[in-house]
């Protein structure tokens, strides 16, 4: 690949363009909003000038309802040898593409499983796709050259390709992406009119649960509208489970001891099912889930403290698998939770305590 065109310079389009230009690809940028394209160009994502000839690959990064019409226009123009889109749903756009009679030999759907709470070209990063899954959904007649072009795009962006059927992809993302977005928003909405004293108690649990609720609402309406039926099906299943949990909680308040015990058993079953589902999420580098233990360290909120802590963990020969920082309300300090292998807990705890850190572990 030597040349590419990116149509749509939002977060995903601009991030792909940045990754490609960083690897020497000539990228030509287009957007319905010329200011967005110029902003992306100013960030080093490419040029707003048109290509001199046919580009190797056109990447269509527009909302799902617009994919088919943009693809049709680009193919009429003869913009590229191969085409892909990066929309978060695949079945609906494919149906639209077929309805418009687009060339599907030189087209392949794709979806990089990456994003951020912020949108637009200013939120873009060249490393956005590093190590992330990038789904490819070829049509029955997608040719080998087009598949290879898409695979090269994925490789240049540092992502990991996975080939799926379009409908299977939509069911999967409804479960692991679209439904969680709605649920995070529903939980966060409970905070809108909550008393200030309650909100001030917010800790890492509520922060983790509601992180994606900060995403652009209009953008998510466009995504959900293209996968609404599947998401609604999953939400209905969740509603049934929620009703079961509510019934169990009400029973736990009953005067009858047997009723209370039954309610507790119902709620415990819900929580244990959650344990089982959580345990299926892939671990580090896609490996089977690994159990880590926590070494919690009190840390001052000043420059250099976190780097010093990591350096001392390194000197102790301990690999930090994950990290979580909980900031203290009203104090210039926080709690850093270092996730490490169980065998490393004792050694790391001892090493840090010897260096004067206030440490506690799960043990």
UniProtKB/TrEMBL annotation:
Fetch the SUPFAM superfamilies from UniProt: 6-phosphogluconate dehydrogenase C-terminal domain-like, NAD(P)-binding Rossmann-fold domains
Asked if the keyword Oxidoreductase belongs to this entry, the reply reads yes
PANTHER family for this protein: PREPHENATE DEHYDROGENASE, PREPHENATE DEHYDROGENASE [NADP(+)]
Record organism:
Streptacidiphilus alkalitolerans
Return the protein name.
Answer: Prephenate dehydrogenase
The family database entries (Pfam families) matched by this protein are listed as: PDH_C (PF20463), PDH_N (PF02153)
Q: What class of enzyme is it?
A: oxidoreductase
- Source organism lineage? Bacteria, Bacillati, Actinomycetota, Actinomycetes, Kitasatosporales
Against Gene3D superfamilies, the record matches this protein to: 6-phosphogluconate dehydrogenase C-terminal like domain, NAD(P)-binding Rossmann-like Domain
């Amino acid at each position: 690949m030597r040349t590419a065109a990116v149509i749509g310079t939002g977060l995903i389009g601009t991030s792909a363009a940045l990754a490609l230009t960083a690897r020497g690809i000539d990228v030509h940028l287009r957007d319905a909003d010329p200011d967005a394209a110029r902003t992306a160009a100013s960030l080093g994502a490419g040029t707003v000038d048109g290509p001199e000839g046919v580009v190797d690959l056109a990447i269509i990064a527009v909302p799902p309802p617009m994919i088919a019409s943009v693809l049709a226009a680009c193919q009429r123009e003869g913009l590229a040898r191969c085409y892909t889109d990066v929309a978060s749903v695949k079945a609906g756009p494919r149906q639209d593409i077929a309805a418009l009679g687009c060339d599907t030999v030189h087209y392949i759907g794709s979806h990089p499983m990456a994003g951020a709470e912020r949108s637009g070209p200013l939120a873009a990063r060249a490393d956005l796709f590093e190590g992330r899954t990038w789904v490819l959904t070829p049509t029955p007649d997608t040719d080998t050259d087009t598949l290879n072009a898409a695979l090269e795009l994925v490789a240049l962006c540092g992502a990991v390709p996975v080939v799926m059927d379009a409908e299977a992809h939509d069911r999967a993302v409804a479960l692991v992406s679209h439904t969680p977005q709605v649920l995070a928003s529903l939980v966060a909405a409970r905070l809108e009119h909550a008393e200030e004293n309650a909100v001030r108690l917010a800790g890492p649990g509520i922060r983790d649960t509601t992180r994606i609720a900060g995403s652009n609402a209009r953008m998510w309406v466009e995504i959900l509208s293209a996968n609404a039926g599947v998401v609604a099906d999953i939400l209905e299943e969740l509603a049934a489970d929620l009703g079961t949990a509510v019934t169990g909680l009400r029973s736990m308040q009953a005067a009858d001891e047997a009723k209370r015990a039954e309610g507790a058993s119902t709620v415990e079953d819900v929580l244990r099912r959650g344990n089982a589902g959580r345990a299926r999420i892939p671990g580090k580098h896609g490996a089977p889930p690994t159990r880590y233990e926590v070494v919690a360290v009190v840390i001052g909120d000043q420059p250099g403290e976190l780097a010093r802590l990591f350096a001392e963990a390194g000197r102790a020969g301990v690999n930090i698998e994950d990290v979580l920082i909980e900031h203290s309300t009203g104090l210039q300090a926080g709690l850093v939770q270092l996730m490490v292998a169980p065998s490393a807990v004792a050694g790391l705890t001892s090493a840090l305590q010897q260096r004067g850190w206030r440490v506690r572990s799960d043990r």
